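Researcher: Good morning. I'm working through a list of sequences from a screen, and I'd like to move beyond sequence-only analysis. For each chain I'm collecting a predicted structure so we can compare shapes side by side. This is the next one on the list. No need for commentary yet; just the structure.
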Amino acid sequence: MDNPAPNPSLDRLLRHMAWANAALIDGLAALPDAALGLASPRNEWPVARILAHLVTAASRYAARLEGVPRPPEAAVPVTTRELTALAARCAAIDARLRVAGAQPEGLAAYADADVDDVPRARSTVVGQAIHHATEHRAQIAGALATNGMDAIDLDALDLWAYGEAEGLGV
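Model: Good morning. Structure tokens for this chain:
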């Protein structure tokens, strides 16, 4: 895959996503193992399963954009010590999404696509990757808060906070 000059706005959104994902996992790693098993009412997925899904989906968005086969699902962490490996995997995937996001528009499909798989516009896949990660970061924060753990401050993970962390201001 060639490395064309990225669109500065899109690249910043992808950098923010990677930063927010890393901050989320760092925040979770500081919690007791029991926090990984917390869920919101009427949601069968606990924090650990949502996080594994976030990473799995990101890897599949990257694979679709790269035209390679779908990767396997990320293992659901049982302890916060396991988050170090998951954080490294997530960072590598987020880096792949940044490269893929710089590619020209066109259709993206898995190399192992079956007849039911619909090729998607690259911009749709990149946009979905960003929004999907945001949605699940919020879902994780909500599951924790519902159970009395206000451990993930979503305002500290927004684009304003990223701008400050990046040194670009708000």
